[in-house]
Amino acid sequence: MTSTPTPALAEPIRTVSRRRLLVAGLGAAATGLPAWQAVAQTAPPAVTSNSHVQWLGPQLKAPARRIVLAQGRMLPALAIVDPAIASKLVGWANDLSTMYAAENAAWLAQFPALAQLPVVGRGRPETLSVEQVLALNPDLVIYSRQVAGSPSSYARSTTFQTLAKAGIPVLVVDFFMQPLDNTQPSLRALAQVLGTTAHAQPFIDDYTRRLDGVRERIARAKPKAPQVFVHAHVGSADCCFSPGKGTFDDFVRHAGGHNLGADLLSAPTGQIAREMVLRLQPDIYIATGTDTRQGTGKFLIGPNIDAATAATGLRDVIKLSQLDTLDAVARGQAHGFWHGFNDTPAHVVLIEALAKWMHPQLFADLDPAATLRTLNQRFFQVPLQGTFWTDLPGAKVAAAPTHGHRA
Q1: Which ranges does the record mark as transmembrane (predicted)?
Q2: What would the pLDDT profile of 191-212 be if each residue is shown by its tens digit?
């Protein structure tokens, strides 16, 4: 893992004003550089050791206290780093409420003031209102890599240029695109700009220890990697969406499996025809779902979903998707998990569950439920309560044959 240097706290936090915008713009024109590059010349970005964890624009003199969150569903991750983060937000995107309603409700129950936060977007790049962000006078805007786009595009971003002209820095972090490479650097960078490094370090240590435990056991045993098909958002779209490289692929590989979607898709996600899935006959079938109850035929799993609902829902959506003839289903090698693991350090729990599904004897002593209880008690501001992974009802899991991949 790459360590992330501390973002230097060099430049005073100033209020947004027309004069600031004009002065920054003149400075950019004088140098002939894009605005964010011109600002950065006087205060070089400090977070540069990781391509997906970036610091853009001027630097802070003190820990950030007025923060805009460009993707609301990052809130649980930020709260691991800073237990007071809810009181420091002055604006956010509303994607937590639209994508994970039960999780959002739990946050509102514990922090009612979040309901009054100005909404600056919907968690997608094209929806962010830079005018609303400027009006909130933040001293920091936090972006996810997913919303910020490719680092090569930052110099062309009119949003980043406008924020730089106003003297507002941007921190880009990543828990989604390459989570196993970028979670630790992202947590460290967040802790540094929030002034909470001592608070964040115990979680980072615990997270690292758990990941290392899985990886080292796989490396020693060298088991054959079962071929896994991950069926994303099963029941909510045409069959069959699946992750390519990154995100869930990282988790499957770390746990000692081979993600078939990575062989077939060049993008982070894409669609694979049902006929192809049936022809491939994966060793293990895994579905993802959420707690969103809108519509019919959904796989409900996540906060406030009970175990029986999740298990029977998995069985029903597999049949609805016409994948119940898969050999993996007949063997009981069909499972499901909460899609919300894709953008939070809590994914360490999912990796343990995946390891037990794919290598049950090797990881017989691993207890993901105990891990989740520990994380809830020690680190999570709002505990994850509900069902977050499941098997088919009454399934007697038979060992999955493997096709020769080495983990």
Answers
A1: none
A2: 999 999 999 999 999 999 999 9
